[in-house]
User: Fold this.
Amino acid sequence: MSLKQFRYVLLIVVLLQVFNNKVSAQCRDTLWRHVYHSYRFSTHDSCMAVTGYVQSLIYEADGDIHIRLTVDTPFRYMLNSANFASEYGKLVLEPVCATTCTQADAIASCAGFTNTVYIPAVGEYVQATGSYVTDNDHGWNELHPVSSIRIVPLETNFLPAPSFTGVTIYPNPAKDHITFHLNEKPTSPVRITLQDAVGRSAGQYQLLNSQSLDVTTSYLPAGSYVFHVEQGDNYIQKGTFVVIK
Assistant:
């Protein structure tokens, strides 16, 4: 297959993916009854589906789970400047009342409701369905409320291979520093994101002209951490390390 033919086939696959996701989207309007301060949202599409990799989960006090999704290329138009500035270039998925609500003024919105939306793990490739909105309080775009999340098989036939095969970290446990070493020199920027055990950001770094990144860990509290490695739209690797004092 020539490069021109490959690009043509890839374009057809992308267009079919967008069309199929739009047609297959089914949303539950009743979920809006349980959205905390629903008046703060501007709706762009009442129901649509999007695919991508789960980058992180943050458990909110109002009972919602804040899921950052690395969207597939056809859905990058859904991101705005606030998604890049505050959400690391991710789309926010927000299943409502999916965890214990501890925020006093939000308890009423979750009363009598039991979440049935599947909550994915970091690194899973999923399709999420929900209302595409802008959160006017924060400025970023979201799928909120989320009606469904499901794991889908990763189609690899037309995806370009990542330019490196993984990352080695040492020492682990780490005391003062930890080194991330790419097994191959990257040909485009590689992003490494750190999170603590409850999903809070512990740092974000980028490599381009080097295979190694040395991160100071002396400022981090002792405990377990998760790292995520991404290159462009490719989710490459995740892993864990421990910081000791």
